[in-house]
Amino acid sequence: MFRTIRPFPGVSHITDAMGVSFTLIEGRKRALLFDTGYGTEDVAAYVRALTGKPLTVFLSHGHHDHVLGARWFERTMMCEEDAAEFRVRTGPEQRMKVKAQAESSGVAVPPDFTDAPILLPEAISFSGNTGEYENRTENLGENEAIILHVPGHTPGSIVIYVPEYGLLLTGDDWNPCTWMWFPSSMAADTWRGKMRSLVRTLDETYGKGVRHVLCSHQPMLREGQELKAYLDYMTEGLMRSAPAVDMGAPVNTHMIRNEGKDWTLIFDADKIKSSL
């Protein structure tokens, strides 16, 4: 069962039965889908019920909760830096884990969930720069979406900016609960610097700047000021003093938690130590 909100004309933020979100942006001539979710339901059929316009599918990064839904599409695009991650996360072992997780939550999966082919995404070709970030502009007809390569959560992570609404789609490069502890994730202090630079660059380059945010693990619209405040809060001092937390993996994970704001940052403390 998909749930959808429409915070702006032509913008549909969709949440699948497993609780992960992805976004459809529709212009007068074309449409763009950012991520595909877990793929336990026919994402393509649902999106086609929302728009009949030519569609381009971009994947924010290579993790399974964003790319398993690519099985429903003939063509997707992703940064080539995440190709190896994609292969692992769409492999049979990961799919069996997701199947068990879904069924334990009462979510039915298709009979071929563990073995349906998922084509490797085409590598995104960037054509310009916004500040220090490679970009590619998708003209949808009377509005546009700017694809930006912003390494952080993974080396190939991308975000999308929609100037018309001052809207930033962050993928997993930022959620109120952000995970920076995966082996391929950037050191959290370096990631924070890059994200602050991105927001500052968008504010300076485009008239509306970052006014609104849609996240991949939030079914509702967030405000740009919250993203900025989160990044200001997660200082290097807090990172150095953050307590350890067990994430069930052989990683020196530590966590910063702001209970009042419901903000969390989980990161690999060893990467912090080596980068400071």
What does this structure look like?
The chain is α+β, with helices and mostly antiparallel strands and 276 residues long. It has a single domain (3-275), classed as Metallo-beta-lactamase, Chain A, CATH 3.60.15.10. The protein is 26% helix and 27% strand. The strands form four sheets. It has a seven-stranded mixed beta sheet. A five-stranded mixed beta sheet has the order 1-2-3-4-5, with no helix packed on it. Strand 10 (144-149) and strand 11 (158-162) form a beta hairpin. The mean pLDDT is 97.
With strands numbered from the N-terminus, the spatial order across the biggest sheet is: 8-9-10-11-12-14-15
- Which percent range describes the beta-strand content? 25-35%
**Uncertain runs:** none
The 3D shape can be described as globular
The CATH superfamily is identified as: Ribonuclease Z/Hydroxyacylglutathione hydrolase-like
Instruction: Compute the number of helices.
Output: 8
Q: What's the alpha carbon Rg, rounded to whole Å?
A: 18 Å
Largest sheet: 7 strands, mixed
User: Which structural class matches the secondary elements?
Assistant: alpha+beta
Total count of domains = 1
Mean pLDDT over the residues: 97
CATH class: Alpha Beta
The CATH architecture name reads 4-Layer Sandwich
Indicate the percent of residues in helices: 25-40%
Considering the chains and any ligands shown, give keywords for the structure:
276 residues, alpha+beta, Metallo-beta-lactamase, Chain A, seven-stranded mixed β-sheet, five-stranded mixed β-sheet
